Amino acid sequence: MHQSICALTLLLTLAALSDGYGSNYYCSPSLCPHGGPNVGCHPPPLSGGTFCYGKSPSVIPMTAAIQAHILHLHNYYRSRVASGYQFPLPSAAHMYTMVWDDELATQAGNNARSCVFAHDRCRNTPQFRTSGQNLALLKFYTPTYTVMDLVTSFIGGWWNEYQYTKPAYIQAFPRSQVSQTIGHFTMLVSDRTWKVGCAMQHWVEGKAMKIYFVCNYSFSNIITQQVYTTGAAGSQCQAGMNPSYPGLCRT
């Protein structure tokens, strides 16, 4: 019943957003109260945006295997923190197991196909009104990497920001430039994030190849707010803990 009510609410929201904006509800200003445009309003074509022209752009598909790998890495790292294994960071009382979301992945693709390494101003969806984002870019000259290798490297790079993250930053995400140093890591371990969707774009510049990786999340870092609630690992999990990822709540 709860799922049916949620689905009906989402459909009504989509209908309201579509009113006056045609079929593209991303163009509704209500989705971006802090400023737009929404990256989904006038997204780049599948062939790539203006900055992709002449660079042989191509979308790298997020296959089921790649999606599973992305989720495993997120949940493995989240489990380490939630369980209290990443000293001196505290354990988490209710950190969810991450699951894949196709709409977040679509919005990530709308950014990736721009061939511009930059956060979009707004990527919110009707379901996720405070969507977060992590970006990564790799430039190389010899195509020796598999997509799995790239995903592992990119997410591992975000994770490595843990070494700059103090327990105080978990209690309140900082205003200072420190936030730019730890923001990828805190997105990975936010306990208000439970869904992720990613996209990857490839293009050529001169003799170099570039791979651009974008992951969008169901929630974002909020200055002065907690990254996650500290406490005994999984002590506030309403549906119990995930046996595959100790310390994480079942989703």
Descriptive report:
- It comes from Anopheles dirus.
- Belongs to the CRISP family.
- Keywords: Glycoprotein, Secreted, Signal.
- It is globular and about 55 Å long.
- α2 (64-82) packs parallel to α4 (147-159).
- A hairpin with a 2-residue loop joins β5 and β6.
- Strands 1, 3, 4, 5 and 6 form a five-stranded mixed beta sheet that branches.
- The two termini are 17 Å apart.
- The chain contains six helices and seven strands, in the order αβαββαβαααβββ.
- It has helices at residues 2-18, 64-82, 102-112, 147-159, 167-171, 178-189; strands at residues 58-60, 95-96, 99-100, 132-140, 195-205, 208-217, 248-249.
- It folds into two domains: 1-31; 44-249, CAP (Pathogenesis-related Protein p14a), CATH 3.40.33.10.
- With 251 residues, it is of the alpha/beta class.
- Helix content is 31%, strand content 16%.
Largest sheet: 5 strands, mixed
Uncertain spans: 1-22
Described by its quaternary structure, the protein is single chain
What is the number of independent domains? 2
Derived structural class: alpha/beta
How many beta-strand segments? 7
The CATH architecture of the largest domain can be named as 3-Layer(aba) Sandwich
Question: What is the class of the largest domain in the CATH system?
Answer: Alpha Beta
The helix content, as a percent range, equals 25-40%
Q: Distance between termini?
A: 17 Å
How many H/I helices?
Answer: 6
User: Rg from C-alpha positions?
Assistant: 19 Å
